[in-house]
Design a protein that fits this description.
Length: 117
């Protein structure tokens, strides 16, 4: 299980504490320094029913600075995934990948279901 986190993100801290409290093993990866790969982003996109916008940290400064609210609709999937793989600040976090599933953002109930499998 991999979890991409940002050290100053409250949701990321809650998620890792939640996993530790349940003694669930995971590999923590700093999302800004090592963003998810295009392949990992494609995998996650599949878990999100192809909803590309859900991969993006829409409340982040980089998202606003790049004007992605308007330009994301015109972007191809491959362009968007490449952009995310090059800028971890743009990726919704925490970003959790398990062997057969994944989730973005921390929702305890959703993560509980994912971590059981």
């Amino acid at each position: 299980m991999k979890i991409y986190t940002y050290k100053n993100c409250d949701s990321c801290r809650k998620a890792t504490k939640w996993l530790q409290a349940r003694e669930i093993g995971f590999e923590e990866i700093p999302i800004r320094e090592t963003p998810p790969t295009v392949a990992e982003l494609k995998t996650m996109l599949g878990h999100l029913n192809g909803e590309l916008k859900r991969l993006f940290n829409t409340s982040g400064q980089d998202y606003r600075a790049l004007g992605l609210k308007d330009s994301l609709l015109a972007m191809s999937e491959s362009e968007a995934l490449k952009l995310l793989s090059e800028n971890g600040n743009l990726v919704k976090r925490p970003f959790l990948l398990t062997k057969g599933s994944g989730a973005v953002g921390f929702k305890e109930v959703e993560w509980g279901d994912l971590c059981k499998s």
